[in-house]
Structure to design on (83 residues):
């Protein structure tokens, strides 16, 4: 879904529902979850894992994107040329 959103220049975020200790072991081998972040080898799209995925953080991020619509173009520019 994140790849499709990137193709359409839509801002999105990845929410991974797991506990922090479960994330630690996965993060030990791969620091990103979203396929686009893996390809770009950096955080192009925000990922919220475990305790970070709470309504305040999500709504603050969405409000920031609403107030600054250029965010969608910034995200796609970061990803441009990674593949």
């Amino acid at each position: 879904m994140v790849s499709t959103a990137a193709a359409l220049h839509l801002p999105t975020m990845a929410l991974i529902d797991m506990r922090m200790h479960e994330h630690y072991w996965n993060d030990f081998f791969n620091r990103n979850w979203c396929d686009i972040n893996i390809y770009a080898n950096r955080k192009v799209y925000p990922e919220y894992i475990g305790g970070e995925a709470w309504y305040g953080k999500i709504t603050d991020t969405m409000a920031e994107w609403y107030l600054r619509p250029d965010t969608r173009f910034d995200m796609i520019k970061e990803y441009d040329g990674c593949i």
